[in-house]
């Protein structure tokens, strides 16, 4: 039955071959073949997940007599295959009509099928070589999908940025594979992980622990694929590609970084230092992505930066040891971001006639930024703002595991949950409302539903993806830092955030009297953010410099 | 004696500045048949010469070869003429054959050489076809080939991908073998290899964008015939299959 996993990946590949070999005029015939094969692939992936959920053992299916070319049937691969096949199916169905007027209709479905097959093989790869090949192919195919409109030079310019960044991410993975094979003498992932578990710390490379080097290289590959800070500039600019491709990219492809870190979890449990760097990079990306998102006036670019922020959060979750939570996050993000992209065109079209925003209390508060004049006792409101979210979070997490608060990573995530909840309530009670208590009550109720749902589902993911409790503890333990340093850090960050809230409260209460003094600083900051920290300009000027140097060399050497 | 042999072989397995001879020769050949022959035979002569040496190539020669490879990959970034681009990438690819001589694996260097040369020969033929149609195979001159000549563009894109060592073509497995073999033993070499690999992708993307992308003009050139397209597709399919079985270790 596990052999069905081969079919999941083979069906889209077969569809691509059929489209190429059979006459595809009219184009809808190609679309039909493609949608039918993707539907079958989705059903097979669902069957695979069901099998894994009902206790199917992990197994690697290899071609007989070969060192590579194997697929892995395990919880992670079956879950990711279903996600990819599902998102791909939605994108296929959407594209049938959306792309109907575009030239190269059959070619689009062919590329979409090849991309689906490459993604499915990537998540199910049972050995390093298969993983490397699929990892490479995803970048190349994305380049051609984003540049589907061969008349559009901007589309190709930005798809080129994507290709180059993805290539930068491909190469560390090749080096990591080389080092792992040299040290442990196998390409097979299950065998490799078993050997690492049996003998984790006996290999060194250039005076460093080999697994630390490998972990750093894998993390670098994940950063490039998931648009982490400094390797993110391609993401918001690839909006000239077809909308279905944007949806597939933001919902499925860009999440590959989180998948890769999960796939190599047995490596990362021995690389605590690398996990701390992963956390830091994720945190910086989450903050910068969110700040850049808020300054965009173009809906698709704003969605691009929103994805960057979410990817930062996903990588950060890996950095604190919440690996399975990152998988849940990437699935949830994939579904909502895919929906947003597929709906963006319709929203833009509708907004040209009517913006559809009701001029109610929410609009007054969010858009016109006019908070309510009525005031409740501030001490009571502050207590509610700070205490209610933390109580909900603590109770929700105690429901799933008594030892939850012994994990530092869990406390960091709890902290983020608390900040979000407190921010929500802080914003809510300043809104104009006829019945403020009702509004606060509803907000708290929504927050409770989200927290309990999130906690239970992420716990279920934890149990499914990492059934061994000792391994789960090891992942969290690898991300831990010295307890005293951790407590001091949490204390400082809490103080900074609470101080920020107090300053905001004070500034709004005094009607912006200090605005003139601070206004200039904010303007400079806004200019910096609106130019996206000049990163794209720096990269462009570096590129120009390199090209000029190459041209000069050619002239000196007389083109020989 | 070995040093003399290696220096002579450096004409054929390009070592800069000896490599300039090959590029000048390639430029002088105008007809497709001798060009194809040159692209297929040139590195084989070098490999045959190097095989007569008693000792494996010394380390300094390997670093020289890597520098040559990097130099030509870097210089290819700004090239717009397809024939010239082909020659530079060939120089960059073949220079890496020195590494297969120094670290002989299960696959003989001659097979690696053939695997690298075949896509280059196909690209040479396509370049000749473009010159026949437009007078020059020059990126940015006409542009928009995908609109005007979709079959030729499709084949051209796949062949360029094969040349720059994309999966699943033979050059990919050669590069993969070399990088994996050097990653632990000679990390600096492995880093240089992946940097060269990255430069090829960059150069290829610039070339393709100049040739294939754009609105296209009203030049009435004929597209590749269906038969020729199928022939190219069959050769590329065979190449990928042979790459998998002979170089990819699936045999």
Termini Cα gap of chain A: 59 Å
How many distinct folded domains of chain B? 1
Output mean pLDDT of chain A: 87
Biggest sheet of chain A: strands, sense, closure?
Answer: 2 strands, antiparallel
Quaternary status of these chains?
A: heterodimer
Strand content of chain B: under 5%
How many E-type strands of chain A? 4
Q: Indicate how many domains the architecture of chain A comprises.
A: 4
Helix share, percent of chain B? over 70%
Unreliable runs of chain B: none
Distance N to C terminus of chain B: 38 Å
The ordered string of helix (H) and strand (E) elements of chain A is HHEEHHHHHEEHHHHHHHHHHHHHHHH
Q: Radius of gyration of chain B over alpha carbons? A: 18 Å
Low-confidence stretches of chain A: none
Tell me the structural class of chain B.
mainly alpha
What characteristic shape of chain A results from the CA principal axes? globular
Describe this structure in words.
- The complex is a heterodimer of chains A (560) and B (251).
- With 560 residues, chain A is an all-alpha fold.
- Chain A has four domains: 1-126; 152-356, no CATH class; 366-513, no CATH class; 517-560.
- Chain A has a two-stranded antiparallel ribbon with strand order 1-2.
- Chain A has helices at residues 4-21, 28-53, 75-98, 105-124, 128-146, 153-184, 189-198, 210-225, 234-237, 243-253, 256-263, 265-268, 272-294, 299-319, 323-351, 361-366, 378-400, 408-428, 436-465, 469-479, 483-509, 515-530, 535-556, and strands at 59-61, 71-73, 204-205, 208-209.
- Helix content of chain A is 75%, strand content 2%.
- In chain A, α11 packs parallel to α14.
- Chain A contains 23 helices and four strands.
- Chain B is mainly alpha-helical.
- Chain B has one domain (2-247).
- In chain B, 74% of the residues lie in helices and 0% in strands.
- Chain B has helices at residues 2-12, 19-28, 32-51, 59-75, 82-95, 97-102, 109-134, 145-148, 150-163, 170-185, 187-211, 226-247.
- In chain B, α5 (82-95) runs antiparallel to α7, α7 (109-134) runs antiparallel to α12 (226-247) and α10 runs antiparallel to α11.
- The longest helix of chain B has 26 residues, at 109-134.
- The radius of gyration of chain B is 18 Å and the shape is globular.
- Chain B starts with a helix and ends with a helix.
- The mean pLDDT of chain B is 93.
- The interface between A and B is large, with 46 and 49 residues.
